[in-house]
Specification:
The chain has eight helices and 16 strands. By secondary structure, it is of the alpha+beta class. Helix 1 runs antiparallel to helix 2 (42-58) and helix 5 runs parallel beside helix 6. The longest helix has 20 residues, at 3-22. Mean pLDDT is 91; it is low at 35-39.
């Protein structure tokens, strides 16, 4: 494991321990609604603080982009390091973390164990490191560019399944932006009639990791944010999978529309998606 990932892991384990302790007191957690079906809790905020402090105390020249707090960076004042938050992106940072302190907040708040901490590092615009940690199962997914992907220190690979009618597909419903609902459900209808089934589990980061581990054969979702998919996508790529947007191009991180699987399965999914959309 790289020193950078080791630092991220220490912070993720601290945040995960906090989540497990707090899960026994869910009724006492303060929850705010950012938008329809989009929630943030004190657990999200505390986890974010743990992760930000853990990374920037070790790597003060890095920048962090977080779902809940915008951008964080460190300023050295003598021997002290002050962490500051800003709304706008720093200009061309060499090292930028993209983190989701709690991917699957709605699951967590309902006592459903499908949630995770998601952390990815970009170096000069290229994803190089990824960590996804699921505290309830103590599952740790790691990837470094060019070095493969692991689950709990064992190498993982995407499935070799090529026949669509044998495939299990993961997806996520459009719960915040409903403008694509009609297109999405038309695609899902075709998926359900042509595959072995589809699952919606409420955490894109874990959906992608399960794809990387061969538990799913394909994945697609509309309108995700970078922190939802950056870490999971690199883990899929390092497990031998492909990740594209809905046109089969590499614009998924910017567009938010993502499709993934092995080469054959990706082609099947893009064909179905393409039958319903040309410019989404």
């Amino acid at each position: 494991m790289s020193p950078i990932l080791n630092t991220a892991l220490r912070a993720a384990r601290r945040a995960g321990s906090m989540m497990l302790r707090t899960a026994n007191q869910i009724d006492a957690i303060r929850v705010d609604q950012k938008a329809l079906n989009d929630f943030v809790s004190d657990v999200d905020r505390e986890a974010e603080q743990i992760l930000v402090e853990g990374i920037l105390s070790a790597y003060p020249h890095h920048v962090i982009r977080s779902e809940e707090g915008g951008y964080f960076r460190a300023i050295k004042r003598g021997d002290e390091i002050e962490i500051v938050k800003q709304d706008n992106a720093p200009k061309n940072p060499d090292y930028e973390w993209i983190i989701d302190p709690l991917d699957g907040t709605t699951n967590y708040l309902h006592g459903h164990p499908q949630y995770a901490i998601s952390m990815a590092l970009r170096h000069r615009g290229v994803l190089t490191e990824a960590l996804v940690f699921a505290p309830e199962r103590n599952d740790l997914y790691l990837a470094s560019r060019g070095e493969g992907a692991t689950l709990n220190e064992r190498r993982i690979r995407v499935s070799k399944r090529e026949r669509l009618n044998e495939a299990l597909i993961a997806t996520g419903f459009p719960v915040v932006d409903h403008s694509v609902s009609d297109v999405y459900f038309a695609i899902l209808q075709d998926m359900l009639t042509q595959t072995a089934g589809a699952r919606r589990e409420g955490s894109a980061a874990l959906d992608l990791c399960n794809l990387a581990a061969g538990r799913f054969d394909g994945f697609f979702e509309f309108n995700l944010k970078p922190w939802d998919m950056a870490a999971g996508a690199l883990i899929v790529q390092e497990a031998g999978g492909l990740v594209t947007d809905f046109q089969g191009e590499g614009n998924w991180l910017e567009s938010g529309n993502i499709c993934a699987g092995n080469a054959k399965m990706l082609a099947h999914l893009l064909r179905i998606i393409g039958a319903h959309t040309t410019a989404v």
